[in-house]
């Protein structure tokens, strides 16, 4: 029996709460072997980012070819890619190796609303990577930037933006409602022939660093296990809700701490 393998292509987080580190924890917690392609290095902790070092595009290509030439990759998760050259390198690598599933988390807007990548990079992300993506997972702020519309404040607006993003070439779109308001966090999954609302209780905690990275990685992991997309997103959201609910059992740093990626496993050992 072959071992399911997922690959994360993203930046690192030296504090361990988001990026490559969160992706590997998530994939491991969800039962698959995790490999990685590092697109950027960051110096950061729970209080913020103090430095960023971009990995040259040719070295990103070298990592992709090293991983895919040896490992049988079942699914790929893509995180923040801030430079056009890196986006082109990743798109070229995916077209060359053709993994079965690609989950793209289009990280482009900070929680404060500040732009993290230039408009040129956003346009290239859409043109080069959306057509290769099984699923794109923007949050409310990212969906607004992609569509040029105000952030959605109701279901109708979310539906309009999801359909607009789907028309950009992605196989399916998951708009995440975590930045919204209300007792429930509502996500909307839209495919060409169906849509589904996924609800979870909104949890009162400041330890939510890396939630977007972790959700997209959980989806990629479950796709690598062979589960259908219709089942995968709901199962991944349930896992993430548990990780958020258990976040305050960890004592990590002085700022916005991580979710508890191993909440299902560590509890078994207590």
Strand order in the largest sheet: 3-2-1-4-5-6
What is the H level of CATH, i.e. the homologous superfamily?
Answer: Ribokinase
Strand content: 15-25%
Uncertain residue ranges: none
Overall structural domain count: 1
Give a quick set of tags describing it:
single chain, 270 residues, alpha/beta, UDP-N-acetylmuramoyl-L-alanine:D-glutamate ligase, 6-stranded mixed β-sheet, 3-stranded antiparallel β-sheet, 9 helices
Topology record:
Elements: E1 5-11, H1 19-29, E2 33-45, E3 48-54, H2 57-70, E4 75-78, H3 84-97, E5 102-104, H4 119-129, E6 135-136, H5 140-147, H6 155-166, E7 172-175, E8 184-191, E9 194-201, H7 211-224, H8 229-245, H9 263-269
Parallel strand pairs: 1-2, 1-4, 4-5, 5-6
Antiparallel strand pairs: 2-3, 7-8, 8-9
Helix pairs in contact: 1-7, 2-3, 3-4, 5-6, 7-8
């Amino acid at each position: 029996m072959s071992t399911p393998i997922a690959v994360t292509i993203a930046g690192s987080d030296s504090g361990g709460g988001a990026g490559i580190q969160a992706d590997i924890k998530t994939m491991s917690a969800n039962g698959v072997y995790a490999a990685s392609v590092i697109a950027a290095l960051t110096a950061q902790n729970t209080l913020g980012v103090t430095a960023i070092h971009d990995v040259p595009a040719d070295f990103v290509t070298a990592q992709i070819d090293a991983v895919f030439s040896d490992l049988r990759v079942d699914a790929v998760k893509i995180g923040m890619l801030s430079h056009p050259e890196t986006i082109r390198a990743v798109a070229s690598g995916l077209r060359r190796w053709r993994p079965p599933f690609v989950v793209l988390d289009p990280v482009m807007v900070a929680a404060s609303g500040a732009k993290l990548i230039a408009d040129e990079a956003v346009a290239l992300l859409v043109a080069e990577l959306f057509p290769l993506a099984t699923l794109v997972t923007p949050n409310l702020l990212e969906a607004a930037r992609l569509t040029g519309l105000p952030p959605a404040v109701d279901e109708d607006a979310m539906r309009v933006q999801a359909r607009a993003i789907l028309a950009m070439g992605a196989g399916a779109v998951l708009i995440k409602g975590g930045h919204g308001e209300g007792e429930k966090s509502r996500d909307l999954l839209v495919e060409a022939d169906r849509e589904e609302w996924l609800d979870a209780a909104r949890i009162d905690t400041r330890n939510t660093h890396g939630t977007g990275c972790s959700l997209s990685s959980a989806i990629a992991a479950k796709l690598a296990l062979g589960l259908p997309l219709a089942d995968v997103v709901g199962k991944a959201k349930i896992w993430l809700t548990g990780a958020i609910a258990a976040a305050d059992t960890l004592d990590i740093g002085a700022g916005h701490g991580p979710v508890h990626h191993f909440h299902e496993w560590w509890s078994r050992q207590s």
